[in-house]
Amino acid sequence: MPSESLHTTLAFLGSVPERRIPELTQIAGPLAAAFSPSEVPLRLTFDHIERWKKPQIISALTREESAGAIALSESLKNELARRGFSPDLKPFRAHVTLARKVPHGTHDHTMQSVFWSFTEFALIESRTEAQATVYRVLESFPLITVQK
Known about the structure:
- By secondary structure, the chain is α+β, with helices and mostly antiparallel strands.
- The protein has helices at residues 21-34, 67-82, and strands at 42-52, 57-61, 95-99, 109-118, 120-128, 133-142.
């Protein structure tokens, strides 16, 4: 995966009609503004690698989930579902996809820890093209007000 494509997903929606994109920003903005400042920045420590057989991907994962990231993910999914969207409701599991279309496995193993911290989240469009999936940030939502 190109470095600019690395991300972790808080709420996966699948296909959304373009006319409904403004609704997503109307949902995400207030949730970001209401998020508890005591939990910001959100911190994730990616410390091991797994290969997931069915989707044929290799991902970096966390052994300990972030309570703040879980709370934000659940809030987003609940509000999206309440507003008529169909988010994937599986429990949040922080991961970063490192490689796709890996037909044969590697054994899961520990890696040198990589620390990520977040003070915002984004609405991201993903498009599958011939060579790769292309990600584009549509809008970002700060979790804290930046003082100037």
